[in-house]
Write a structure and sequence with these properties.
By secondary structure, the chain is an alpha/beta fold. The chain folds into 2 domains: about 270 residues, Aldehyde Dehydrogenase, Chain A, domain 1 (3-Layer(aba) Sandwich); about 190 residues, Aldehyde Dehydrogenase, Chain A, domain 2 (3-Layer(aba) Sandwich), CATH 3.40.309. Strands 14-15-16-13-12-18-19 form a 7-stranded mixed beta sheet, with helices on both faces. The model has no long low-confidence stretch (mean pLDDT about 95). It binds NADP nicotinamide-adenine-dinucleotide phosphate.
Length: about 500
Protein backbone atom coordinates (compact mmCIF):
# COMPACT_ATOMS: atom_id res chain seq x y z
CA UNK A 1 0.00 0.00 0.00
CA UNK A 2 1.25 3.51 -0.82
CA UNK A 3 2.23 5.69 2.07
CA UNK A 4 2.64 9.37 1.37
CA UNK A 5 5.41 11.35 3.10
CA UNK A 6 4.21 13.12 6.22
CA UNK A 7 2.80 16.55 5.37
CA UNK A 8 4.67 19.16 7.45
CA UNK A 9 3.83 22.77 8.13
CA UNK A 10 6.10 25.47 6.71
CA UNK A 11 6.38 28.56 8.86
CA UNK A 12 8.98 31.32 8.69
CA UNK A 13 11.32 29.23 6.55
CA UNK A 14 11.09 26.12 8.73
CA UNK A 15 9.52 22.77 7.85
CA UNK A 16 7.82 21.94 11.13
CA UNK A 17 5.62 19.62 13.07
CA UNK A 18 2.59 21.21 14.68
CA UNK A 19 3.18 22.60 18.15
CA UNK A 20 2.87 19.65 20.54
CA UNK A 21 3.44 17.21 17.65
CA UNK A 22 -0.26 16.74 16.87
CA UNK A 23 -1.01 14.88 13.61
CA UNK A 24 -4.05 13.50 11.82
CA UNK A 25 -4.60 10.71 9.29
CA UNK A 26 -4.92 11.51 5.62
CA UNK A 27 -7.58 9.18 4.19
CA UNK A 28 -7.41 7.66 0.71
CA UNK A 29 -10.68 8.18 -1.21
CA UNK A 30 -9.99 4.83 -2.95
CA UNK A 31 -9.89 2.73 0.20
CA UNK A 32 -11.20 4.82 3.08
CA UNK A 33 -7.97 3.86 4.87
CA UNK A 34 -5.14 6.11 6.09
CA UNK A 35 -2.60 6.81 3.36
CA UNK A 36 -0.40 9.20 5.30
CA UNK A 37 -0.17 11.65 8.17
CA UNK A 38 -0.33 15.42 8.33
CA UNK A 39 0.64 17.93 10.98
CA UNK A 40 -2.45 19.26 12.74
CA UNK A 41 -1.78 22.98 13.13
CA UNK A 42 -2.68 24.68 16.40
CA UNK A 43 -3.88 28.26 16.72
CA UNK A 44 -0.30 29.10 17.78
CA UNK A 45 1.07 27.71 14.51
CA UNK A 46 -1.37 29.81 12.46
CA UNK A 47 -0.46 32.86 14.53
CA UNK A 48 3.25 32.24 13.85
CA UNK A 49 2.59 31.94 10.11
CA UNK A 50 0.69 35.26 10.03
CA UNK A 51 3.45 37.01 12.00
CA UNK A 52 6.13 35.62 9.66
CA UNK A 53 4.29 36.67 6.50
CA UNK A 54 3.69 40.16 7.91
CA UNK A 55 7.33 40.57 8.86
CA UNK A 56 8.58 39.34 5.48
CA UNK A 57 6.32 41.82 3.71
CA UNK A 58 7.09 44.81 5.93
CA UNK A 59 10.79 44.32 6.62
CA UNK A 60 12.37 42.76 3.52
CA UNK A 61 12.73 43.84 -0.10
CA UNK A 62 10.39 41.08 -1.32
CA UNK A 63 7.62 43.47 -2.28
CA UNK A 64 9.91 45.81 -4.22
CA UNK A 65 12.53 43.52 -5.78
CA UNK A 66 10.76 42.29 -8.89
CA UNK A 67 13.81 40.62 -10.49
CA UNK A 68 14.57 38.65 -7.36
CA UNK A 69 11.07 37.28 -7.06
CA UNK A 70 10.80 36.42 -10.74
CA UNK A 71 14.06 34.45 -10.51
CA UNK A 72 12.88 32.59 -7.40
CA UNK A 73 9.45 31.80 -8.86
CA UNK A 74 11.21 30.38 -11.95
CA UNK A 75 13.49 28.22 -9.80
CA UNK A 76 10.48 27.08 -7.76
CA UNK A 77 8.77 26.05 -11.03
CA UNK A 78 11.78 23.89 -11.98
CA UNK A 79 11.62 22.11 -8.65
CA UNK A 80 7.92 21.39 -9.20
CA UNK A 81 8.80 20.02 -12.63
CA UNK A 82 11.21 17.55 -11.05
CA UNK A 83 8.51 16.64 -8.54
CA UNK A 84 5.95 15.56 -11.19
CA UNK A 85 5.84 11.91 -10.04
CA UNK A 86 5.25 13.01 -6.45
CA UNK A 87 2.55 15.47 -7.56
CA UNK A 88 0.81 12.63 -9.43
CA UNK A 89 0.97 10.39 -6.34
CA UNK A 90 -0.58 13.14 -4.25
CA UNK A 91 -3.38 13.74 -6.77
CA UNK A 92 -4.18 10.03 -6.90
CA UNK A 93 -3.95 9.16 -3.22
CA UNK A 94 -5.15 12.37 -1.56
CA UNK A 95 -7.64 13.80 -4.06
CA UNK A 96 -8.76 10.45 -5.54
CA UNK A 97 -7.77 11.40 -9.10
CA UNK A 98 -7.89 8.60 -11.66
CA UNK A 99 -4.65 8.06 -13.59
CA UNK A 100 -6.15 9.32 -16.85
CA UNK A 101 -6.92 12.64 -15.15
CA UNK A 102 -3.31 13.35 -14.13
CA UNK A 103 -2.36 14.66 -17.56
CA UNK A 104 -5.23 17.12 -17.29
CA UNK A 105 -6.13 19.56 -14.51
CA UNK A 106 -4.46 17.61 -11.72
CA UNK A 107 -0.79 17.93 -12.71
CA UNK A 108 -0.08 18.74 -16.37
CA UNK A 109 -2.53 21.62 -16.79
CA UNK A 110 -1.74 22.93 -13.32
CA UNK A 111 1.96 23.25 -14.19
CA UNK A 112 1.04 24.68 -17.59
CA UNK A 113 -0.91 27.34 -15.71
CA UNK A 114 2.25 28.24 -13.79
CA UNK A 115 4.12 28.64 -17.10
CA UNK A 116 1.30 30.81 -18.39
CA UNK A 117 1.61 33.09 -15.35
CA UNK A 118 5.36 33.45 -16.05
CA UNK A 119 4.60 34.25 -19.65
CA UNK A 120 2.03 36.96 -18.91
CA UNK A 121 4.14 38.50 -16.13
CA UNK A 122 5.78 40.85 -18.65
CA UNK A 123 2.37 42.32 -19.42
CA UNK A 124 1.62 43.40 -15.85
CA UNK A 125 1.45 47.17 -15.71
CA UNK A 126 3.38 48.52 -12.70
CA UNK A 127 3.01 52.21 -13.53
CA UNK A 128 0.70 54.35 -15.65
CA UNK A 129 1.12 57.96 -16.67
CA UNK A 130 -2.11 59.99 -16.34
CA UNK A 131 -0.55 63.20 -17.68
CA UNK A 132 -1.13 66.76 -16.51
CA UNK A 133 -4.31 68.35 -15.19
CA UNK A 134 -5.07 71.88 -14.07
CA UNK A 135 -6.87 72.17 -10.73
CA UNK A 136 -6.83 74.33 -7.56
CA UNK A 137 -4.97 77.02 -9.49
CA UNK A 138 -2.00 74.98 -10.72
CA UNK A 139 -1.08 72.08 -12.93
CA UNK A 140 -0.16 68.62 -11.57
CA UNK A 141 1.40 65.64 -13.24
CA UNK A 142 -0.13 62.32 -12.12
CA UNK A 143 1.15 58.77 -12.19
CA UNK A 144 -0.39 55.57 -10.87
CA UNK A 145 1.89 52.97 -9.31
CA UNK A 146 0.62 49.46 -8.73
CA UNK A 147 1.92 47.87 -5.55
CA UNK A 148 1.48 44.47 -3.91
CA UNK A 149 -1.46 44.43 -1.54
CA UNK A 150 0.49 42.82 1.34
CA UNK A 151 -0.10 39.57 3.22
CA UNK A 152 -2.33 37.10 1.38
CA UNK A 153 -4.21 34.17 2.89
CA UNK A 154 -4.83 31.57 0.17
CA UNK A 155 -7.59 29.19 1.29
CA UNK A 156 -8.13 26.30 -1.09
CA UNK A 157 -10.37 23.23 -1.66
CA UNK A 158 -9.59 19.55 -2.21
CA UNK A 159 -10.91 18.89 -5.71
CA UNK A 160 -7.97 19.99 -7.91
CA UNK A 161 -5.66 21.19 -5.14
CA UNK A 162 -2.43 21.67 -7.07
CA UNK A 163 -4.19 23.69 -9.77
CA UNK A 164 -5.92 25.98 -7.28
CA UNK A 165 -2.84 26.33 -5.07
CA UNK A 166 -0.78 27.40 -8.08
CA UNK A 167 -3.54 29.78 -9.20
CA UNK A 168 -3.20 31.72 -5.96
CA UNK A 169 0.34 31.23 -4.63
CA UNK A 170 2.21 31.88 -7.88
CA UNK A 171 0.15 34.97 -8.76
CA UNK A 172 0.50 36.43 -5.27
CA UNK A 173 4.28 35.85 -5.22
CA UNK A 174 4.73 37.38 -8.67
CA UNK A 175 2.74 40.41 -7.53
CA UNK A 176 5.12 40.83 -4.57
CA UNK A 177 2.86 39.66 -1.76
CA UNK A 178 3.76 37.24 1.01
CA UNK A 179 1.52 34.22 1.39
CA UNK A 180 -0.04 31.88 3.91
CA UNK A 181 -1.42 28.87 2.04
CA UNK A 182 -4.19 26.97 3.85
CA UNK A 183 -5.14 23.87 1.85
CA UNK A 184 -8.21 21.74 2.65
CA UNK A 185 -7.81 19.11 5.40
CA UNK A 186 -8.30 16.26 2.88
CA UNK A 187 -5.36 17.37 0.72
CA UNK A 188 -2.60 18.68 3.01
CA UNK A 189 0.22 17.10 0.99
CA UNK A 190 -0.65 19.17 -2.09
CA UNK A 191 -0.06 22.21 0.12
CA UNK A 192 2.91 20.89 2.10
CA UNK A 193 4.94 20.43 -1.06
CA UNK A 194 4.83 24.21 -1.56
CA UNK A 195 6.68 24.51 1.75
CA UNK A 196 9.22 21.79 1.04
CA UNK A 197 10.13 23.16 -2.37
CA UNK A 198 10.11 26.78 -1.18
CA UNK A 199 12.83 25.87 1.26
CA UNK A 200 14.82 24.16 -1.48
CA UNK A 201 14.35 27.13 -3.83
CA UNK A 202 15.68 29.48 -1.17
CA UNK A 203 12.79 31.88 -0.65
CA UNK A 204 13.40 34.39 2.15
CA UNK A 205 11.90 33.30 5.47
CA UNK A 206 8.23 34.15 5.85
CA UNK A 207 7.52 34.85 2.17
CA UNK A 208 5.68 31.53 1.86
CA UNK A 209 3.99 29.75 4.77
CA UNK A 210 1.80 26.66 4.71
CA UNK A 211 -0.60 25.64 7.48
CA UNK A 212 -3.33 23.00 7.66
CA UNK A 213 -5.21 21.06 10.28
CA UNK A 214 -8.19 18.83 10.79
CA UNK A 215 -10.25 21.22 12.89
CA UNK A 216 -12.91 22.54 10.44
CA UNK A 217 -12.71 26.25 9.75
CA UNK A 218 -10.31 26.99 12.65
CA UNK A 219 -7.22 27.99 10.68
CA UNK A 220 -9.28 29.58 7.88
CA UNK A 221 -11.28 31.75 10.27
CA UNK A 222 -8.16 32.93 12.06
CA UNK A 223 -6.68 34.05 8.75
CA UNK A 224 -9.87 35.79 7.67
CA UNK A 225 -10.31 37.71 10.93
CA UNK A 226 -6.70 38.77 11.50
CA UNK A 227 -6.00 42.46 10.76
CA UNK A 228 -2.44 41.62 9.65
CA UNK A 229 -3.82 39.73 6.64
CA UNK A 230 -4.60 42.16 3.81
CA UNK A 231 -6.36 39.93 1.29
CA UNK A 232 -8.10 36.55 1.38
CA UNK A 233 -8.05 34.62 -1.86
CA UNK A 234 -10.56 31.81 -1.46
CA UNK A 235 -11.73 28.96 -3.64
CA UNK A 236 -14.48 26.75 -2.30
CA UNK A 237 -18.18 26.59 -1.67
CA UNK A 238 -20.51 29.57 -1.92
CA UNK A 239 -21.65 29.05 1.69
CA UNK A 240 -18.10 29.40 3.01
CA UNK A 241 -17.44 32.29 0.60
CA UNK A 242 -20.31 34.24 2.20
CA UNK A 243 -18.99 33.46 5.66
CA UNK A 244 -15.57 34.76 4.64
CA UNK A 245 -17.10 38.05 3.46
CA UNK A 246 -18.93 38.38 6.77
CA UNK A 247 -15.95 37.51 8.91
CA UNK A 248 -13.61 39.67 6.87
CA UNK A 249 -15.89 42.71 7.13
CA UNK A 250 -14.75 44.01 10.56
CA UNK A 251 -11.19 44.37 9.24
CA UNK A 252 -12.44 45.47 5.77
CA UNK A 253 -10.57 42.58 4.26
CA UNK A 254 -10.15 42.55 0.52
CA UNK A 255 -11.66 39.25 -0.60
CA UNK A 256 -11.31 37.37 -3.81
CA UNK A 257 -13.81 34.51 -4.18
CA UNK A 258 -13.95 31.58 -6.62
CA UNK A 259 -17.09 29.69 -5.66
CA UNK A 260 -19.48 27.01 -6.82
CA UNK A 261 -21.25 26.51 -10.13
CA UNK A 262 -24.17 24.83 -11.86
CA UNK A 263 -23.19 25.57 -15.42
CA UNK A 264 -25.43 24.93 -18.41
CA UNK A 265 -24.48 23.52 -21.76
CA UNK A 266 -26.99 24.45 -24.45
CA UNK A 267 -27.01 22.17 -27.46
CA UNK A 268 -28.94 23.77 -30.32
CA UNK A 269 -30.94 21.78 -32.86
CA UNK A 270 -28.42 22.74 -35.56
CA UNK A 271 -25.31 21.72 -33.58
CA UNK A 272 -22.72 20.55 -36.11
CA UNK A 273 -22.23 17.30 -34.20
CA UNK A 274 -25.28 16.86 -32.02
CA UNK A 275 -24.36 13.40 -30.68
CA UNK A 276 -20.81 14.43 -29.77
CA UNK A 277 -22.06 17.60 -28.06
CA UNK A 278 -24.47 15.62 -25.96
CA UNK A 279 -21.85 13.00 -25.09
CA UNK A 280 -19.17 15.50 -24.02
CA UNK A 281 -21.36 16.52 -21.09
CA UNK A 282 -21.20 13.03 -19.52
CA UNK A 283 -20.00 13.91 -16.02
CA UNK A 284 -17.12 11.50 -15.71
CA UNK A 285 -13.93 13.53 -15.26
CA UNK A 286 -12.83 13.40 -11.60
CA UNK A 287 -16.30 12.12 -10.67
CA UNK A 288 -17.83 15.49 -11.55
CA UNK A 289 -15.92 17.28 -8.77
CA UNK A 290 -15.13 20.39 -10.75
CA UNK A 291 -16.50 23.86 -10.16
CA UNK A 292 -16.77 24.62 -13.89
CA UNK A 293 -18.29 21.34 -15.07
CA UNK A 294 -21.38 21.67 -17.25
CA UNK A 295 -23.75 19.79 -15.01
CA UNK A 296 -26.99 20.99 -16.66
CA UNK A 297 -27.47 19.81 -20.23
CA UNK A 298 -30.13 21.80 -22.13
CA UNK A 299 -31.47 20.13 -25.27
CA UNK A 300 -34.31 21.18 -27.61
CA UNK A 301 -37.66 19.49 -27.06
CA UNK A 302 -37.62 18.53 -30.74
CA UNK A 303 -34.51 16.38 -30.19
CA UNK A 304 -35.00 15.37 -26.55
CA UNK A 305 -35.75 11.71 -27.23
CA UNK A 306 -32.73 11.50 -29.49
CA UNK A 307 -30.50 13.04 -26.77
CA UNK A 308 -31.89 10.60 -24.22
CA UNK A 309 -31.01 7.63 -26.47
CA UNK A 310 -27.51 9.01 -27.15
CA UNK A 311 -26.84 9.41 -23.43
CA UNK A 312 -28.17 5.97 -22.56
CA UNK A 313 -25.91 4.44 -25.14
CA UNK A 314 -22.96 6.58 -24.01
CA UNK A 315 -23.27 5.67 -20.34
CA UNK A 316 -23.88 2.00 -21.12
CA UNK A 317 -20.83 2.09 -23.38
CA UNK A 318 -18.74 3.48 -20.53
CA UNK A 319 -19.90 0.56 -18.42
CA UNK A 320 -17.31 -0.37 -15.85
CA UNK A 321 -14.48 1.60 -17.44
CA UNK A 322 -13.96 3.80 -14.42
CA UNK A 323 -12.81 3.48 -10.83
CA UNK A 324 -9.65 1.39 -11.27
CA UNK A 325 -6.62 3.18 -9.77
CA UNK A 326 -4.25 1.12 -11.92
CA UNK A 327 -5.89 1.84 -15.26
CA UNK A 328 -4.19 4.76 -17.07
CA UNK A 329 -7.23 5.28 -19.32
CA UNK A 330 -9.70 5.90 -16.52
CA UNK A 331 -10.83 9.49 -15.94
CA UNK A 332 -13.04 8.84 -12.95
CA UNK A 333 -12.31 7.51 -9.49
CA UNK A 334 -14.10 7.87 -6.16
CA UNK A 335 -15.51 11.04 -4.63
CA UNK A 336 -13.33 12.65 -1.97
CA UNK A 337 -14.78 11.35 1.31
CA UNK A 338 -17.69 9.64 3.06
CA UNK A 339 -19.50 12.93 3.69
CA UNK A 340 -19.34 13.83 0.00
CA UNK A 341 -20.51 10.35 -1.03
CA UNK A 342 -23.51 10.63 1.27
CA UNK A 343 -24.24 14.11 -0.05
CA UNK A 344 -24.17 12.95 -3.69
CA UNK A 345 -26.34 9.89 -2.93
CA UNK A 346 -28.69 12.20 -1.02
CA UNK A 347 -29.12 14.36 -4.13
CA UNK A 348 -29.78 11.27 -6.25
CA UNK A 349 -32.60 10.39 -3.86
CA UNK A 350 -33.90 13.98 -3.98
CA UNK A 351 -33.97 13.83 -7.80
CA UNK A 352 -36.10 10.68 -7.71
CA UNK A 353 -38.39 12.18 -5.06
CA UNK A 354 -38.79 15.29 -7.22
CA UNK A 355 -40.03 13.14 -10.11
CA UNK A 356 -37.00 13.21 -12.44
CA UNK A 357 -36.26 9.98 -14.33
CA UNK A 358 -33.03 8.19 -13.49
CA UNK A 359 -31.76 7.24 -16.94
CA UNK A 360 -28.55 5.60 -15.77
CA UNK A 361 -26.55 4.98 -12.58
CA UNK A 362 -27.57 6.26 -9.19
CA UNK A 363 -25.93 3.76 -6.85
CA UNK A 364 -22.95 3.59 -4.53
CA UNK A 365 -20.49 1.00 -5.83
CA UNK A 366 -18.77 -0.77 -2.94
CA UNK A 367 -17.69 -3.47 -5.40
CA UNK A 368 -15.13 -0.95 -6.72
CA UNK A 369 -13.34 -0.83 -3.38
CA UNK A 370 -13.76 0.17 0.25
CA UNK A 371 -13.55 3.90 -0.65
CA UNK A 372 -16.22 6.30 -1.84
CA UNK A 373 -17.52 5.21 -5.23
CA UNK A 374 -20.70 6.58 -6.80
CA UNK A 375 -21.52 5.47 -10.32
CA UNK A 376 -21.87 7.88 -13.23
CA UNK A 377 -25.47 9.08 -13.10
CA UNK A 378 -27.82 10.93 -15.42
CA UNK A 379 -31.33 12.25 -14.80
CA UNK A 380 -33.73 13.14 -17.62
CA UNK A 381 -37.19 14.78 -17.48
CA UNK A 382 -35.68 17.42 -15.22
CA UNK A 383 -37.30 20.82 -14.65
CA UNK A 384 -35.00 23.72 -13.94
CA UNK A 385 -36.77 24.49 -10.66
CA UNK A 386 -35.91 21.10 -9.17
CA UNK A 387 -33.22 21.06 -6.49
CA UNK A 388 -31.05 18.75 -8.61
CA UNK A 389 -31.05 21.48 -11.29
CA UNK A 390 -30.46 24.39 -8.94
CA UNK A 391 -28.00 23.12 -6.32
CA UNK A 392 -24.39 22.18 -6.85
CA UNK A 393 -24.05 18.42 -6.33
CA UNK A 394 -20.29 18.24 -6.94
CA UNK A 395 -20.46 14.61 -8.02
CA UNK A 396 -20.94 12.54 -11.20
CA UNK A 397 -24.58 13.56 -11.68
CA UNK A 398 -25.77 15.15 -14.93
CA UNK A 399 -29.28 16.59 -15.31
CA UNK A 400 -30.93 16.98 -18.73
CA UNK A 401 -33.51 19.73 -19.21
CA UNK A 402 -35.67 20.27 -22.33
CA UNK A 403 -36.23 23.76 -23.81
CA UNK A 404 -38.64 25.13 -26.42
CA UNK A 405 -36.61 27.71 -28.34
CA UNK A 406 -33.49 29.90 -28.02
CA UNK A 407 -35.16 32.39 -25.66
CA UNK A 408 -36.29 29.55 -23.43
CA UNK A 409 -32.77 28.06 -23.41
CA UNK A 410 -31.27 31.42 -22.39
CA UNK A 411 -33.89 31.86 -19.67
CA UNK A 412 -33.21 28.39 -18.24
CA UNK A 413 -29.42 28.82 -18.38
CA UNK A 414 -29.71 32.14 -16.53
CA UNK A 415 -32.26 30.97 -13.95
CA UNK A 416 -29.54 29.89 -11.58
CA UNK A 417 -27.97 31.42 -8.51
CA UNK A 418 -24.61 30.57 -10.09
CA UNK A 419 -22.76 31.93 -13.11
CA UNK A 420 -19.36 30.31 -13.45
CA UNK A 421 -19.13 28.61 -16.82
CA UNK A 422 -21.19 27.17 -19.65
CA UNK A 423 -21.32 26.20 -23.28
CA UNK A 424 -23.36 26.65 -26.44
CA UNK A 425 -23.11 24.44 -29.51
CA UNK A 426 -24.85 25.17 -32.77
CA UNK A 427 -24.45 27.17 -35.96
CA UNK A 428 -21.75 29.72 -35.20
CA UNK A 429 -23.57 33.08 -35.36
CA UNK A 430 -26.58 31.80 -33.47
CA UNK A 431 -24.41 30.17 -30.78
CA UNK A 432 -22.31 33.35 -30.38
CA UNK A 433 -25.46 35.47 -29.93
CA UNK A 434 -26.67 33.15 -27.19
CA UNK A 435 -23.21 33.00 -25.53
CA UNK A 436 -23.25 36.78 -25.16
CA UNK A 437 -26.51 36.59 -23.23
CA UNK A 438 -25.52 33.95 -20.68
CA UNK A 439 -24.74 35.59 -17.32
CA UNK A 440 -21.61 33.64 -16.55
CA UNK A 441 -17.83 34.16 -16.33
CA UNK A 442 -16.96 31.93 -19.30
CA UNK A 443 -18.76 30.25 -22.19
CA UNK A 444 -17.33 27.77 -24.68
CA UNK A 445 -18.88 28.05 -28.13
CA UNK A 446 -18.76 24.79 -30.08
CA UNK A 447 -16.53 23.41 -27.34
CA UNK A 448 -14.01 26.26 -27.42
CA UNK A 449 -11.90 25.99 -24.26
CA UNK A 450 -11.99 29.07 -22.05
CA UNK A 451 -10.11 27.74 -19.06
CA UNK A 452 -6.35 28.28 -19.38
CA UNK A 453 -3.63 29.91 -17.32
CA UNK A 454 -3.17 32.89 -19.65
CA UNK A 455 -6.77 34.10 -19.53
CA UNK A 456 -8.94 35.24 -16.60
CA UNK A 457 -11.35 32.86 -14.90
CA UNK A 458 -14.07 33.59 -12.37
CA UNK A 459 -17.74 33.86 -11.71
CA UNK A 460 -20.82 36.05 -11.90
CA UNK A 461 -23.48 36.05 -9.18
CA UNK A 462 -23.01 33.37 -6.48
CA UNK A 463 -20.01 31.94 -8.32
CA UNK A 464 -17.67 34.59 -7.00
CA UNK A 465 -15.98 37.96 -7.14
CA UNK A 466 -12.80 38.74 -9.05
CA UNK A 467 -10.67 36.88 -11.56
CA UNK A 468 -7.86 34.35 -11.22
CA UNK A 469 -5.23 33.45 -13.88
CA UNK A 470 -3.88 35.61 -16.67
CA UNK A 471 -2.62 39.15 -16.15
CA UNK A 472 -5.88 39.90 -14.31
CA UNK A 473 -5.05 37.09 -11.89
CA UNK A 474 -1.76 38.77 -10.92
CA UNK A 475 -3.36 42.23 -10.81
CA UNK A 476 -5.91 40.97 -8.25
CA UNK A 477 -3.02 41.16 -5.79
CA UNK A 478 -2.12 44.79 -6.50
CA UNK A 479 -3.20 48.09 -4.96
CA UNK A 480 -3.40 51.32 -6.95
CA UNK A 481 -1.52 54.32 -5.59
CA UNK A 482 -1.77 57.74 -7.27
CA UNK A 483 1.20 60.08 -7.03
CA UNK A 484 0.95 63.68 -8.25
CA UNK A 485 3.51 66.48 -8.36
CA UNK A 486 3.59 69.98 -9.83
CA UNK A 487 3.91 69.75 -13.61
CA UNK A 488 7.42 70.44 -14.84
CA UNK A 489 9.06 69.36 -11.56
P1 LIG B 1 -15.28 24.40 1.29
O1 LIG B 1 -15.94 23.50 2.26
O2 LIG B 1 -15.90 25.71 1.03
O3 LIG B 1 -13.79 24.56 1.82
C1 LIG B 1 -12.81 25.24 1.07
C2 LIG B 1 -11.70 25.71 2.01
O4 LIG B 1 -12.24 26.65 2.94
C3 LIG B 1 -11.06 24.62 2.84
O5 LIG B 1 -9.68 24.87 2.94
C4 LIG B 1 -11.76 24.78 4.18
O6 LIG B 1 -10.95 24.25 5.21
C5 LIG B 1 -11.89 26.29 4.28
N1 LIG B 1 -12.95 26.78 5.18
C6 LIG B 1 -14.09 26.18 5.56
N2 LIG B 1 -14.81 26.99 6.37
C7 LIG B 1 -14.11 28.14 6.49
C8 LIG B 1 -14.33 29.38 7.17
N3 LIG B 1 -15.44 29.60 7.89
N4 LIG B 1 -13.41 30.35 7.07
C9 LIG B 1 -12.30 30.17 6.32
N5 LIG B 1 -12.02 29.01 5.67
C10 LIG B 1 -12.92 28.01 5.74
O7 LIG B 1 -15.14 23.71 -0.14
P2 LIG B 1 -14.63 22.26 -0.49
O8 LIG B 1 -15.68 21.30 -0.05
O9 LIG B 1 -13.24 22.07 -0.02
O10 LIG B 1 -14.58 22.34 -2.10
C11 LIG B 1 -15.70 22.20 -2.89
C12 LIG B 1 -16.29 23.55 -3.31
O11 LIG B 1 -15.29 24.34 -3.91
C13 LIG B 1 -17.38 23.43 -4.34
O12 LIG B 1 -18.47 24.26 -4.00
C14 LIG B 1 -16.73 23.93 -5.63
O13 LIG B 1 -17.60 24.44 -6.59
C15 LIG B 1 -15.80 24.93 -5.11
N6 LIG B 1 -14.71 25.16 -6.07
C16 LIG B 1 -14.74 26.31 -6.81
C17 LIG B 1 -13.76 26.56 -7.75
C18 LIG B 1 -13.76 27.82 -8.57
O14 LIG B 1 -12.74 28.14 -9.15
N7 LIG B 1 -14.84 28.56 -8.65
C19 LIG B 1 -12.72 25.65 -7.93
C20 LIG B 1 -12.71 24.50 -7.17
C21 LIG B 1 -13.72 24.27 -6.23
P3 LIG B 1 -11.58 23.57 6.52
O15 LIG B 1 -12.43 22.46 6.05
O16 LIG B 1 -10.45 23.19 7.37
O17 LIG B 1 -12.33 24.61 7.20
Amino acid sequence: MTTLPEAKLFIDGQLRDAAGGRTYDVISPWTGEPVGKAADATAGDVEAAIAAARRAFDETDWSTNREKRLALVRKYRELFEAARPRLAELAIHEAGAAMGAIDKAHVALALQGWDDYLEVFDRVQWEKDYGNKFGYGYESHRIAVYEPVGVVAAITPWNVPLYVNIGKVVAALLAGCTVILKPAPDTPGAGAIFGELAREAGFPDGVINVVFGQNPAEAGEMLVKDPRVDLVSFTGSTAVGKRIMEQGAPTLKRVFLELGGKSAKIVLDDAPNFAMDVLTTMLIFHAGQGCAVQSRLLVPESRYEEARAILKQGYEGLGDNWGDPANPAHLMGPVINKRQMERVLGYIQIGQDEGATLLYGGRARPDKGSGYFVEPTVFVDVRNDMRIAQEEIFGPVLVVIPYKDDEDAIRIANESAYGLSGGVSGSFDRAMKIARRIRTGSVGVNNGMCIAGDIPFGGYKASGIGREWGVEGIEEFLETKMIAYPAGA
